[in-house]
Every structure is written in C-alpha cells, then in structure tokens.
Specification:
Layout lengths: L3 E6 L3 E7 L5 E8 L8 H16 L13 E6 L2 E5 L12
Antiparallel strand pairs: 1-2, 2-3, 4-5
Length: 94
C-alpha cells in the first residue's frame, strides 16, 4: 500500500497524518508540548514516523523507507514545509 506522511511542526504541538494517494486518511496524531521546556524533536519525530508507518501498513506488507525534507520558504504564516519527492528506494534516484 502506498501512502504519504505529512508532519506539521507547530509552536505548541507536532501534528502528523498518513494518507493514501487518493487522499484517504489512514492515521493522524497530535503531540502537544510545552514550548518553554526542552523537546527532543529528532527522537519524537522518528517515533511518530515509526508509529504512523506501522499503523498505515498492513501487517502482511513490509514498509519501504524514504526520507527527505523540502522547505518551500518563509511567508506570512511562517516557515512552510512541503511534500518531498519520492525516490526510487533501491537506488535513491529521484
């Protein structure tokens, strides 16, 4: 099953969704945090990605991994992160 993960790094929470290419919602999460306290971003995001990948992938399938981040720029709403390109998992080619 093919799906995409979207992650929103907000000022008070990290939100994430897993969707099919047709836009069907497979899973979603919202992890609030206190902005005045230290937050282990890398560990928390890795955990969210792992949990959502497991939830969105049927047990009979092994998920393919691809990692990336694309920054669209800064606008009136702040830094906007967009979808990355999908790469060929065996070669890493875009």
């Amino acid at each position: 099953m093919s799906f995409a993960l979207g992650i929103d790094l907000g000022g008070s929470s990290v939100k994430a969704v897993a969707v099919t290419p047709e836009g069907e919602l497979l899973d979603e999460t919202n992890v609030p945090f206190d902005a005045s306290e230290q937050f282990d971003w890398a560990r928390r995001i890795r955990q969210i990605v792992e949990d959502m990948t497991n939830a969105a992938t049927p047990a009979s399938l092994s998920p393919q991994r691809g990692e990336g981040l694309r920054v669209r720029g800064d606008d009136a709403e702040g830094l906007r992160l967009g979808e990355g390109q999908q790469s060929e998992t065996r070669t890493g080619d875009l």
